[in-house]
Design brief:
- By secondary structure, this protein is an all-alpha fold.
- Helices cover about 65% and strands about 0% of the residues.
- GO terms for molecular function: high voltage-gated calcium channel activity.
- It is found in: Membrane.
- One of its GO terms (cellular component) is voltage-gated calcium channel complex.
Amino acid sequence: MLAILLNCVTLGMFQPCDDVHCLNNRCSFLQALDDGIFAFFAVEMLVKMVALGVLGQKGYLGDTWNRLDFFIVVVGMLEYSLDGHNVSLSAIRTVRVLRPLRAINRVPSMRILVTLLLDTLPMLGNVLALCFFVFFIFGIVGVQLWAGLLRNRCFMGEDFRT
């Protein structure tokens, strides 16, 4: 749990615009910390795979939450393997945001809450369809009422000072 909280802190401190080349001490420290956290997650996954087995109902991949952990670690391995090959990793790095979801597996009450929330999603289909219909109708009404009223409104006049 401490590793997950530490990972949340490092994700919050990461600055994508400034930390592209990782030239300062702060960025190097955060990168080393992120590498250590990832290594901890990978070792944890391997230990659980050895203890439980990989496949089967009682195996590591038999549990949905372990599949999420497996996906996060595999995408992290992909990120580290492609890091030196001049490949744009911005899309892969967004998967780092999923790492805090590992906390759901550690807290039983949170796990029950998320499971119930996922079980109720199919029942929300009718509500979402109704919302879509209402927004669609109001969109049509809005376009009919205000079509062309804001034409030529988004420009700077001659009296605009910079």
